[in-house]
Design a protein that fits this description.
- There is one protein chain.
- The chain has a single domain, classed as Orthogonal Bundle (Cytochrome Bc1 Complex, Chain D, domain 2), CATH 1.10.760.10.
- It starts with a helix and ends with a helix.
- The protein is mainly alpha-helical.
- It is extended and about 85 Å long.
- Helix 3 packs across helix 4 and helix 4 packs across helix 5.
- It contains 6 helices and no strands.
């Protein structure tokens, strides 16, 4: 079936809309763990600021590696100790973040691979659990403050 030029012109808006809708499927490929490290993590993990374990420091990374890839990646992603959530980059995806954690673990002698779908699922579940625990603790703290406020009215 041949389309006339006018028929093609009439369908052009539909083709443009389809291209826009398909754009997410053509998203940028994931960055490597090393690329994420250099862009986001290096500022702290090269210098050890705020006790961040330095890249390649096997002794510092040993207990962290022993926590397991899912636990360490999830806890670090949501923020742990002095480390902010997502390493301070609000646009960093969990998968790219987890690749950087795996790369750091390998730099310190760990045998972690870039996370596959099953590992990413375990990381997401652990991150959700950690966030639920944090939310529950904050709600308990808020309730305690509200009780104190009722018991000790403003002077």
């Amino acid at each position: 079936m041949k389309l006339s030029f006018s028929s093609f012109q009439a369908r052009l808006p539909l083709l443009a809309a389809a291209a826009v809708l398909a754009a997410p499927a053509m998203a940028q490929p994931l960055r490597s763990g090393e690329a994420v490290y250099r862009a986001v993590c290096m500022a702290c993990h090269d210098t050890g600021v705020a006790h961040a374990p330095k890249m390649g420091d096997a002794a510092a990374w040993k207990p962290l590696i022993e926590e397991g890839q899912d636990v360490l990646s999830a806890h670090a992603f949501v923020g742990v100790r002095a480390m902010p959530a997502r390493g301070g980059d609000e646009k960093l995806s969990l998968e790219e973040f987890s690749r950087a954690v795996a790369w750091l673990a390998r730099s310190a002698g760990g045998n972690w691979q870039d996370p596959d779908a099953a590992m990413m699922h375990r990381i997401r579940v652990e991150a959700e659990k950690r966030l639920d625990d944090d939310i529950r603790a904050k709600q308990e703290l808020k309730a305690a403050l509200e009780r104190q406020d009722k018991e000790q009215p403003a002077r």
